[in-house]
Each structure stands twice: as C-alpha cells, then as structure tokens.
User: What shape does this take?
Amino acid sequence: MAMRDVRRRCPYCGSNVVLDDCAIVCTLLPPEAKSQFDQHSKEVRSVPASGDEAHGHIGRYAVLRPETAKGARVTRMWSKLPSVYERANPIDLPRRACTSCRTPLPEELDELDAVVLAVVGLNRGGKTYFIGSSLTAASRNDGLARHGVTAFTPLEDTAERLHQHYFSGLFRGGFKLDTTPVDDHLTRPPLMFKVTMYDGQAFLLLVHDVSGEALMNRSSRTATAGFVSRADAIIFLADPTDMDHVERELPLQTLTEAGGGSARSLDQASLLDAVLNELRPVNPERLPPLAVTISKSDLLEVAFGGKPRMSTSGLGEITLEEVIPFSKPMGDGDWREEIRVTSEQVRKLLRDLNENKLVSLGESHTPSSFHAISVLGSKASRQARGGRPAPVRVMDPLGTVLEQIRAGRARDN
Assistant: This one.
C-alpha cells in the first residue's frame, strides 16, 4: 500500500491524517533548543545538517519536503518511495508533520497504529508513581509477560526519560518523584512504546503523564488534556485518602505523607463521572476499556490494622477471614481468571467502604474492571527489600486494558 493511501490518527491532536500528505521536517535541533517538541517556538530553528535545501519552516522545524496540496496527488517521483526515511537524509532525523497540529509524528507511526492510554485521577493520587512503576517493570523486566504481551519496548527518547525521571527517582532515589507540572505534557511528548501481543498484534502505545490539576474541570481538560476524551483505554486511579472510611482511620502523619488534605476542587467520583460523560459521545458504540484502580492499597492495611479483609457486618468493618487476593502476588494459574476474581473482590470492598458511586460508574461502563495496587508496598515489605519499593499488583490494570484493546482490535479485523 502506498503511503498516500495510509491514514493514521495523530497521537497529539487526534486528527486523521494521510501520511503522504504530510510535510517532512528536520527534527535535529541545535543544543540550545529548550524543547525538541515545542514546535510553536521560533527562537531556535533546525537547519538540515545534511546540507539539503529547506523549504521554509513549520514552527522551529526546517521543511525537507513540503506537504502535498490538499486534494492533489503526490508526484510520481515521490509515490515510488514507500517511506519518508527514503526521501530524506537520516542525519536530519526526518519526521512527518501532522497536517492539523503540525507536530512531528513518531517514525513508528508509518508501520503501527497509535493507541492512547489515559491515566486519570486526582492530584497527588499516585498517577506518576503508577506510570513509573508499571511502565518500568513492563519494559525492563518483562512485567507483562504473564498478561500476554510478548514485547514492550520504549522508543529511544522514552527509554531515556523513563530511566532518568521515573526509575532513578522511584527505585534508586528514595522513591521520591517530583509533582507533575500542570502544563508539562504540553511541552513533552507522551511516553511511547512498541507493544506486541501474543497473537502478533502490534501497536504504538502512548501514555501521557498529566497533572491532576489539569483534569479538575472541563475547560482545563479540553485545553490541556484533550487526549482523555479520545483515549483508547482509561486507568482511573482512586485515591484512598479521598475515601471517608479510610481517611478517618489513618494516622495524621500517614495521611499527610500520602497526599491527604491536598487542595482538590473535585471529588474523585465526580471526576470519573465527568470523564466518562466526555467519552461516550466520541464513540458510543465502542467504549474504551476502563480499569478503576485503588491506588496506595497499602494504606488500607495501615487504616484497618492488618491485611485488608472483606466486611460482612457493616460499613468500614474489614473483618472477613479470607485475605483479599490483591494483597498477595499473582499466582501461577490463569491470569484472566485471577483478575476476574480480584476485580469482584475489589468491587465489593469499594461497596463496603461506601464508595458506591465509584462502583456504579464503573459498572455502567463496558468493558470495565476493578483493581487495587500499591507502588511502594507496605513498610514491612520495603524494609525486607532494603528500603526499596515493593510494588504489589501494579501490572494488573495495565495488562487488563491491553488485553481488552487486543480483543477489540481482533473483533474489528
């Protein structure tokens, strides 16, 4: 298939673009450029290192080949060449530029569709920690192998960011990560991974690390987090410190350290309701998978004095003898069945904690699942690991939504 026949969805603005209509730009920027991806700044512009002619600029990027005029066919010379990287000198780091938002597109988009994963939750709800822990384990330790993922490979610049900004701070720097700036994802690209599933399906996974403040109302979501409404999957992190039955049982110091009491203009059930209402009009026939996930599940152990257990006698009384599966590592059986059982247990626990709205919203969305994770693990587990994090079940929500994406794509084909 010629490139002019290939359409892709831009991972940045969501527009459908014809690849061969896109201009090819030089993304090799001088060292003094503040951000390779701030395409609107004209302070520092790229100059083709190859010496090839520049046909003007798009933002700060020199144009190596102009975009095709709307409605016009590409010339015969270009149509013979199937790939952008045969049309420009590799030293210039050539990329196609989206015809709508003008952002340089990932090279891998020539071969793979882009899939957008939105990790949503309150500010200080654990999004950055979850992203750092799960994506690090998936890419460094084959953490998704049990979940039917045969390859999870970060693109080169993502691998560098993942190591420097997530892995080093979380696993080597006292598990302290900086708070995500409100507009950080506007100047940084999403984290991008080439994912291959057990049935051979492959796609480009994009994960935005977006601040909770950018999600708190519709205007800020539209302006700075528009990817949420066009996401192919949603992982919603429910913070225990925003649950009344947990919050009132936590020691003040623990609550403060965990982010409880942070300035929040919206409760998390209302945030989930707002996000789901924005998703439904986009594609009402095919809703994206939703994983409602209790973050910081180790706080439940602190709040209720031992491993979290199901209640049989009333709200907030965690007294059942059987330990909930999410407090243990995954077993050796069928992972889908274990996720199904765990999902039901977590759903019941949320009901037990009087988080009925969260459960009802999740149940009204298809497909959906319920999870509980701890990025840091319990204090005893961390001490046993020499003070390093002891993650618990952090791969469950990611593996589940990837499997649901795979199944949906298989049905479509």
